[in-house]
Specification:
- The protein is mainly α.
- The relative contact order is 0.10.
């Protein structure tokens, strides 16, 4: 990582290390070290925001409380941060870990201090990316994340502005989002 906190990453860049394609992988040691220095978050929040490592969520020592933790300055759960960052692999890992730990799905819809569940945060991030020249590059990853989270999310959950996730999705400027949300809503009627 090219961050002063991760001295070994900065040293490699300073030495003119060979560039790699894509973002460098984050290690558990880096995440644990960063979590120790931040008192308003957990290593699960950091891993979710950075996109891994997935091994933290697969670890048998990871508890349901870790997955649903709101120990974040804005009351976000790791699932909020993974969805907002378009880290669909992390979202899938959190959902799988929650299922194996019998975490009630209501905990996956915990709201942050703004009143948003992870599905609201994701739909709002998609809309922001769709209407921004900068955000277009991450739109595909956000849509992939919607396909992962949308299958499990409660589309009837209401945000801080009293909008359901379904309503937010149907107001999207992107026809693909409206289609995905409508498909998940229809599927949930038959479950």
């Amino acid at each position: 990582l090219a961050h002063p906190f991760f001295a070994d990453g900065a040293a490699k860049e300073a030495e003119g290390a060979e560039e790699t394609k894509g973002e460098p992988e984050t290690t558990e040691a880096q995440v644990n070290s960063l979590a120790e220095g931040l008192h308003r978050t957990t290593k699960f929040h950091i891993a979710a925001e950075l996109g891994g490592p997935l091994s933290l969520f697969d670890d048998p020592k990871t508890t349901a409380a870790d997955l649903a933790s709101r120990h974040h300055c804005l009351g976000k759960t790791p699932l909020h941060l993974a969805t907002e960052g378009a880290h669909h692999e992390v979202v899938a890992a959190i959902l799988a870990a929650a299922a194996t730990r019998n975490l009630p799905t209501v905990h996956l819809d915990l709201k942050d201090l703004l009143g948003d569940a992870p599905i609201h945060s994701l739909l709002k991030a998609i809309e922001a990316a769709a209407t921004s020249e900068v955000g277009v590059t991450c739109l595909d990853a956000l849509l992939a994340t919607l396909n992962v989270l949308g299958a499990e999310a409660d589309l009837n959950v209401v945000d801080g502005s009293r909008n359901t996730a379904f309503a937010i999705g149907m107001m999207s400027s992107l026809p693909s989002v409206r289609k995905i949300v409508k498909e998940f809503k229809m599927k949930s009627k038959f479950d």
